[in-house]
C-alpha cells in the first residue's frame, strides 16, 4: 500500500512538473481550431485569407511555425495567388516578445521574384503571423542571418516588417 | 498485516508486469522484412531507408532519414520541422500541404483531416512519420509487386470547374506529367496517355457540361511501368486548349462548346509527347547578356556631364602635387595647379556666381582647402578630393565663389594648369567646358558641350510659394535623380525577348531628355549597362549606391524606373507606381495619374511598399513598374519605342504636375548639389 502511495505521489509530482513546464516554457495561444492564413492576390496589393485547421498543439512557437509554413506554401493550388518560389522552406520560427523571427532557407536567394511577387509574398507572411495574438512584427532571416534585401524584388528586410510596412 | 502487505506486494508486481506489457506493446522495433516491408522501389531504384521503424504495424520513417529526403526531393516536395515543436508540414510541388501533429494520429491533407496508423513521435531532433500514409497524401501509392512494394506515382486528383460556358479540368499528379495525345484533332474524344503514372481515381466521371460530357480514366501496365489513359468525351465541334498550370505536376485543359473560343495553347498533335512545363518565374539570369537593341535617345540628351566620348587620359589617377594662389596686379586672381600627368577636366559656371572645375582621374597630394578670401574677385575657394558618384573616378574639385560673374580662364602649362580669374565680368559667360590637359596643352572636347537647361540660361525668378510641394531646405531643388533599375551583372527580368535592364535604361534616357528640356538638372544612377556599385555586388550595396547618388547630391526627387514580371499563371499586366515614405505619396499620385491616363496598359494602381531604393532615398521617391515583361500584350507594347516614349512623357508630365515647375535658380544651394 505504501509503495502504491509513493508511486501515486511521484506520478502526481511528475504531472504537476509537466503542466508547469508547458505553462511557463510553452505558453499557449488562444487561436481556436484554426489559424488565419493570408495570401496576396495577383494584383500584388489586396489580401485574402483562408483558415487552416490546427492539430491539438496550441503552444505559441508551434502555432507560429505552423502558420508561417502555411503562409509560405500559400493557398490551395487552384487559387490564383502570389506565392513564394517553389522549394522555399521555413527552417525555424522564433518568437521573442512581439516579434516573430522567420528563418527561411537560402534557396529563396537563388530563385528571386520580381518586386511585385516578392512584396506579395512577404506581405502574406507578415499578415499571417501578426494575426496571431501577441505578434506585431516579423523579422526575416535567411539561413539564420539577417539580410538587408533579396535579389530580385529588393524589399527591405533588415528591420522587422509590420502591417504598416505596406 | 502480513497478509495485507503480501496483497499490496502482489498488486505492485501485477502493476509492474502490466506496465511492462503496455510498454512493449508500443515499443518501436526495427522494421522486419515480413512486416511493413522495407523493400520499397521508387523511380526504378530501391529506396533505402537508414533507420526505419515499425509502429502499430506501419512503417515509420524519420524526418531526417536520407531515404525520405531523396523521396521528397524526387517529388519536388519540401519538409518543414523545427525540433521541439509539434507540427511537421510537407509542401508538395503544386503547393498542397500535408500536416502531421506530433503525438496525435490526426493529420491533414490540403486541410482535410485524416487518421494515421500511429501518432508521429519525436526522437532526438527528428520526428518519425507514417511513411505510407505520407506517400499516399503525395499521390504516391504503395503497390505490392511480388516480394517488394513499388511506390507508384499517381494522377491523384481531377478538379472540374466551369468558367462562363467553358469547362476547365485540372489533373494533378505526384510528379511532372508526361503525356501523349492519342486521338486526332477532329475526334470528339480527346484521349491522353500518361506514362509512368497510375491512378486510383474513379474510372468514370460524368461532367454533363455543354462542352464536355464525361471523363474516363483507366490504368494499365505493371506496377513499375504503369500507364494511365484519360479519355475526355467532348461535344462534337467543341474547342479545347492547354491552359497555363501552376506546377509541372498539374495539367489544365479547357473545353469550350461549339462556337466559343478557348484561350491557352493547342494540345500537341496526335502522337506527340508533351511534358507539362512549370510556370515561368521572374528570374534574373546569372550573367548579363545582350538582348535586342532598342532605339534609344543618344547621350546628347544628357545633363551637362563629361560625355563618354571624352578620351581616357590615364587608368591611374594623376596627383595634384601643389596649389599656389595669389592676387594679380590688375585685381584678378590666379591659382596655379601642379599635376603629375595628363588629366581630364570638366568645369561649370553656376548661375549664382560659383565656378568649379573637376579634374579626373586625380587625387589630392596636398591638404584640402576651404577658405574665405578678402578679395575683390574671389570670395572663397574650396579644394577637395572625392570619388565621382556616377563614374567612380577619383576626382579633385577646385571651386570658387566669385564676387560677380567674373571672366574665368583655364590655361594649361607645362606641369599643370592655371585658373585665371579676371577682375572684369563676363558679359556672355559659357556655362560648361570639358576636355583634357595633355602635355601642357588644353584640348577641349571636340563635341559640342552639353548646355545647361534653358532655365539656367535665362532664369526667371518665380516667387517662392507657388510650388505645391516645396523641397525641404538645403535640397537640390532643380536636381532629379533617375535610377534605371538593374544593370551590369544584374539583368533583371528576362521574358518575351526583353531584358529589363535595357528597357529601364531606355525609358530613363527618354525621361532624362524630357526633364532636361523642361529645365531640370538630371543625374542618372547609371547611363550604360553597368552595376552602380560593382559587378556581382550585394543587393544592398548596389541599391545603397543608387540612393547615395541622390542623397549626396541632395536631389529634389528620385525616380526608379523598372519593368515588372510575375509568374505566367497569374496573367498579370499593367502599370504600377510604388512609394514608401509618406512624403512620397503625393509624388506617386501625381505621376501615376498621368501614367494611368496616358498609357494603354492596365492601371494597377499606387502601392505602398518598402523597397530599398525608395525607402532609403531622403527625398520624395517613387518606383515605377512600367509594364509586365511576362504579359504577351504588355511585352508587345514594351517592344515599341513609341510606347516607351509615352511612359517617359507621362512621368515627366507627372513630375510637372507635382512640382508645377523647376524652382527658381536662386534656390540652388551649392556646386555639389547644383550639378
Topology (elements, then pairings):
The complex is a heterodimer of chains A (166) and B (675).
Chain A: H1 2-25, E1 34-40, E2 47-53, H2 60-73, E3 90-96, E4 99-104, H3 107-110, H4 115-130, E5 137-142, E6 145-146
Parallel strand pairs in A: 4-5
Antiparallel strand pairs in A: 1-2, 3-4, 5-6
Chain B: H1 2-26, E1 29-30, E2 40-42, E3 45-47, E4 53-55, E5 58-62, H2 66-75, E6 78-81, E7 87-91, E8 97-101, E9 106-109, E10 112-115, E11 121-123, E12 126-130, H3 131-137, E13 140-145, E14 148-153, E15 155-163, E16 166-173, E17 178-181, E18 189-195, E19 204-206, E20 212-221, E21 226-234, E22 239-243, E23 250-256, E24 273-275, E25 318-327, E26 333-339, E27 343-350, E28 354-360, E29 362-364, E30 369-372, E31 378-387, E32 394-402, E33 406-413, E34 416-425, E35 432-438, E36 441-444, H4 454-457, E37 476-484, E38 494-495, E39 498-499, H5 500-517, E40 521-524, H6 539-552, E41 555-564, E42 575-579, H7 585-598, E43 603-608, H8 612-615, E44 621-628, H9 632-638, H10 641-659
Parallel strand pairs in B: 2-14, 25-29, 37-40, 37-41, 41-44, 42-43
Antiparallel strand pairs in B: 1-4, 2-3, 4-5, 5-12, 6-7, 7-8, 8-9, 9-10, 11-12, 13-14, 15-16, 16-23, 17-18, 17-24, 18-21, 19-20, 20-21, 22-23, 25-26, 26-34, 27-28, 27-35, 28-32, 30-31, 31-32, 33-34, 35-36, 38-39, 42-44
Helix pairs in contact in B: 5-10, 7-10
Summary keywords:
heterodimer, A: 166 residues, alpha+beta, 2 domains, 4-stranded mixed β-sheet, two-stranded antiparallel sheet, 4 helices, 6 strands, B: 675 residues, Copper Amine Oxidase, Chain A, domain 1, Immunoglobulin-like, 4 domains, 7-stranded antiparallel β-sheet, 6-stranded antiparallel β-sheet, 10 helices, 44 strands, disordered C terminus
The rounded distance between the terminal residues' Cα atoms of chain A is: 67 Å
Helix content of chain A: 25-40%
What is the level 1 CATH name of the largest domain in chain B? Alpha Beta
Alpha plus pi helix count of chain B = 10
Number of helices of chain A: 4
Give the strand tally of chain B: 44
**What name does CATH use for the topology of the largest domain in chain B?**
Aminopeptidase
Mean pLDDT of chain B: 78
Tell me the strand percentage band of chain A.
15-25%
Radius of gyration of chain B: 37 Å
How many separate domains make up the residues of chain A? 2
Biggest sheet strand order of chain A reads: 3-4-5-6
Uncertain segments of chain B: 20-35, 278-315, 446-472, 666-675
CATH level 4 superfamily of the largest domain in chain B = Zn-dependent exopeptidases
As an assembly, this protein is heterodimer
Largest sheet of chain B: 7 strands, antiparallel
Radius of gyration of chain A: 19 Å
* Average of per-residue pLDDT values of chain A: 85
Amino acid at each position: 500500500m505504501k509503495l502504491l502511495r509513493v508511486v501515486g505521489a511521484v506520478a502526481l509530482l511528475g504531472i504537476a512538473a509537466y503542466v508547469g513546464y508547458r505553462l511557463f516554457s510553452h505558453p499557449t495561444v488562444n487561436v481556436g481550431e484554426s489559424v488565419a492564413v493570408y495570401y496576396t492576390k495577383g494584383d500584388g496589393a489586396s489580401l485574402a485569407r483562408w483558415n487552416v485547421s490546427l492539430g491539438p498543439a496550441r503552444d505559441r512557437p508551434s502555432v507560429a511555425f505552423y502558420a508561417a509554413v502555411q503562409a509560405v506554401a500559400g493557398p490551395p493550388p487552384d487559387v490564383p495567388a502570389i506565392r513564394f518560389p517553389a522549394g522555399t522552406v521555413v527552417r525555424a520560427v522564433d518568437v521573442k516578445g512581439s516579434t516573430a523571427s522567420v528563418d527561411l532557407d537560402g534557396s529563396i536567394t537563388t530563385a528571386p521574384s520580381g518586386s511585385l511577387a516578392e512584396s506579395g509574398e512577404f506581405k502574406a507572411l507578415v499578415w499571417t503571423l501578426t494575426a496571431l495574438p501577441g505578434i506585431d512584427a516579423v523579422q526575416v532571416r535567411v539561413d539564420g542571418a539577417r539580410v538587408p534585401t533579396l535579389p530580385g524584388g529588393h524589399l527591405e528586410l533588415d528591420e522587422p516588417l509590420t502591417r504598416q510596412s505596406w | 498485516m502480513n497478509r495485507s502487505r503480501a496483497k499490496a506486494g502482489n498488486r505492485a508486481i501485477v502493476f509492474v508486469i502490466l506496465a511492462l506489457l503496455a510498454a512493449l506493446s508500443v515499443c518501436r522495433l526495427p522494421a522486419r522484412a515480413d512486416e511493413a516491408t522495407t523493400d520499397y522501389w521508387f523511380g526504378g531504384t530501391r529506396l533505402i531507408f537508414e533507420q526505419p521503424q515499425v509502429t502499430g504495424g506501419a512503417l515509420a520513417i524519420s524526418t531526417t532519414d536520407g531515404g525520405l529526403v531523396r523521396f521528397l526531393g524526387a517529388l519536388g516536395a519540401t519538409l518543414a520541422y523545427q525540433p521541439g515543436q509539434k507540427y511537421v508540414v510537407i509542401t508538395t510541388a503544386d503547393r498542397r500541404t500535408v500536416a502531421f501533429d506530433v503525438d496525435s494520429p490526426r493529420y491533414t491533407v490540403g486541410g482535410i483531416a485524416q487518421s494515421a496508423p500511429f501518432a508521429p513521435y519525436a526522437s532526438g531532433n527528428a520526428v518519425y512519420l507514417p511513411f505510407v500514409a505520407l506517400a499516399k497524401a503525395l499521390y504516391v501509392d504503395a503497390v505490392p509487386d511480388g516480394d517488394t512494394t513499388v511506390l507508384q506515382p499517381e494522377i491523384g486528383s481531377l478538379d472540374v470547374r466551369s468558367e462562363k460556358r467553358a469547362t476547365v479540368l485540372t489533373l494533378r499528379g505526384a510528379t511532372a506529367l508526361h503525356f501523349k495525345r492519342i486521338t486526332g484533332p477532329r475526334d470528339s474524344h480527346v484521349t491522353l496517355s500518361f506514362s509512368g503514372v497510375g491512378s486510383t481515381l474513379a474510372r468514370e466521371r460524368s461532367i454533363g457540361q455543354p462542352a464536355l460530357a464525361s471523363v474516363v480514366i483507366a490504368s494499365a501496365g505493371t506496377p513499375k511501368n504503369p500507364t494511365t489513359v484519360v479519355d475526355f468525351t467532348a461535344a462534337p465541334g467543341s474547342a479545347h486548349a492547354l491552359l497555363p498550370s501552376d506546377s509541372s505536376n498539374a495539367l489544365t485543359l479547357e473545353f469550350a462548346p461549339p462556337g466559343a473560343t478557348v484561350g491557352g495553347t493547342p494540345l500537341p498533335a496526335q502522337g506527340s509527347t508533351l511534358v507539362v512545363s512549370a510556370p515561368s518565374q521572374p528570374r534574373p539570369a546569372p550573367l548579363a547578356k545582350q538582348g535586342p537593341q532598342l532605339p534609344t535617345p543618344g547621350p546628347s540628351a544628357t545633363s551637362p556631364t563629361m560625355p563618354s566620348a571624352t578620351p581616357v587620359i590615364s587608368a591611374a589617377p594623376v596627383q595634384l602635387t601643389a596649389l599656389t594662389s595669389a592676387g594679380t596686379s590688375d585685381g584678378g586672381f590666379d591659382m596655379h595647379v601642379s599635376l603629375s600627368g595628363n588629366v581630364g577636366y570638366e568645369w561649370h559656371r553656376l548661375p549664382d556666381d560659383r565656378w568649379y572645375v573637376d579634374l579626373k582621374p586625380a587625387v589630392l597630394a596636398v591638404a584640402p582647402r576651404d577658405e574665405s578670401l578678402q578679395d575683390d574677385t574671389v570670395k572663397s575657394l574650396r579644394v577637395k578630393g572625392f570619388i565621382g558618384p556616377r563614374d567612380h573616378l577619383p576626382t579633385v574639385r577646385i571651386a570658387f565663389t566669385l564676387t560677380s560673374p567674373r571672366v574665368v580662364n583655364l590655361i594649361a602649362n607645362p606641369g599643370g594648369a592655371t585658373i585665371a580669374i579676371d577682375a572684369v565680368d563676363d558679359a556672355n559667360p559659357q556655362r560648361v567646358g570639358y576636355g583634357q590637359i595633355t602635355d601642357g596643352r588644353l584640348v577641349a572636347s571636340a563635341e559640342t558641350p552639353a548646355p545647361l537647361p534653358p532655365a539656367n540660361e535665362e532664369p526667371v525668378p518665380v516667387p517662392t510659394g507657388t510650388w505645391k510641394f516645396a523641397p525641404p531646405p538645403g535640397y537640390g531643388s532643380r536636381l532629379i535623380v533617375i535610377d534605371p533599375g538593374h544593370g551590369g551583372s544584374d539583368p533583371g527580368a528576362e521574358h518575351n525577348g526583353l531584358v529589363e535592364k535595357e528597357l529601364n535604361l531606355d525609358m530613363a534616357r527618354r525621361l532624362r531628355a524630357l526633364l532636361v528640356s523642361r529645365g531640370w538638372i538630371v543625374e542618372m544612377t547609371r547611363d550604360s549597362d553597368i552595376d552602380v556599385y560593382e559587378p556581382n555586388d550585394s543587393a544592398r550595396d548596389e541599391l545603397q549606391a543608387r540612393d547615395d547618388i541622390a542623397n549626396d547630391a541632395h536631389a529634389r526627387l528620385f525616380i526608379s524606373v523598372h519593368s515588372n514580371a510575375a509568374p505566367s499563371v497569374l496573367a498579370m499586366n499593367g502599370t504600377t507606381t510604388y512609394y514608401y515614405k509618406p512624403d512620397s505619396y503625393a509624388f506617386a499620385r501625381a505621376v501615376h495619374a498621368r501614367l494611368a491616363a496616358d498609357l494603354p496598359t492596365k492601371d494597377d494602381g499606387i502601392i505602398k511598399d518598402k523597397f530599398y531604393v525608395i525607402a532609403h532615398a531622403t527625398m520624395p521617391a517613387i518606383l515605377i513598374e512600367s509594364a509586365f515583361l511576362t504579359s504577351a500584350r504588355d511585352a508587345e507594347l514594351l517592344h515599341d519605342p513609341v510606347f516607351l516614349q509615352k511612359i517617359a512623357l507621362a512621368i515627366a508630365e507627372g513630375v510637372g504636375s507635382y512640382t508645377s515647375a523647376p524652382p527658381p535658380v536662386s534656390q540652388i544651394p551649392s556646386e555639389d548639389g547644383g550639378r
